[in-house]
Amino acid sequence: MFALFFIFFLLFIILIVIGSTLYVVRQQSVAIIERFGRYQGVASSGIHVRMPFGIDKIAARIQLRLLQSEIVVETKTKDNVFVTLNIATQYRVNELNVTDAYYKLMRPEAQIKSYIEDALRSSVPKLTLDELFEKKDEIALEVQHQVAEEMSTYGYLIVKTLITKVEPDAEVKQSMNEINAAQRKRVAAQELANADKIKIVTAAEAEAEKDRLHGVGIAQQRKAIVDGLAESIQELKLANVGMTEEQIMSILLTNQYLDTLNQFAAAGNQTLFLPSKPDGVEDIRTQVLSALKAK
């Protein structure tokens, strides 16, 4: 009975020893192994064996995956505008320099933040607010290079640094929006004024063209009347009716006068201005004869 108990006890001790010597490292991570507090080596992913009873100890498990740190930095531009910058930094441990990443740096995220703040506060004050918006990608790249150079000595790789947001002071932001709105209103007013100008010029040109065509029509109408009277006189003279030109003109003018009265009445007009003297028609006849002779 005692022998059986001893065998079980021995098996239990063996299992404890085996359990304390075996350990597993997960994928995309490494384990720092120390022996009596001194660095012994780095174990990659998989199952491993170590010295039992705490002789070999897993000091830390280091992640090799990509990490991201969100940082908020407040600084001032060249034109004395305070801005808040949101920075996203992606970094990871260098697989070839895991020992430096663990032993040289206690708080890597805080150290990265300090380097980024220092780099931004030396770069942003050289630019105005407008230039900061335009060149934020260039600034992010410059900061990335500076921080990557510093962090490489501690076993960290800076993969990407992005300026995700540039937020000026609330009053400055409101002023910028008001300036932009005023500029847009001024452009809109100019466009409306130009449109009104085009309408006025176009209407004036149309009115001038209308008057010109109306004058041409009147001139052509009068010319046709004179030509018609001349032809009528010539026909009557050829017909040997025994009348002078003045008599023939009087007859034609009288007919023209009566035709005009008929047209005036047919148009529904009720007011007619006639010569104040009896010799008014004679004046018209004299003018028409002068026009015929001049022709």
From TrEMBL:
Membrane-spanning segments: 6-25
Gene Ontology BP terms: proteolysis
SUPFAM superfamilies: Band 7/SPFH domain (SSF117892)
GO MF annotation terms: peptidase activity
Pfam families associated with the record: Band_7 (PF01145)
InterPro entries assigned to the protein according to its UniProt record, in alphabetical order: Band7/mec-2_domain, Band_7, Band_7/SPFH_dom_sf
Keywords tagged on the record: Hydrolase, Membrane, Protease, Transmembrane, Transmembrane helix
Domain Band span(s) in chain numbering: 20-180
Coiled coil segments of this chain: none
Protein name in the entry: Protease
Protein species of origin: Streptococcus pantholopis
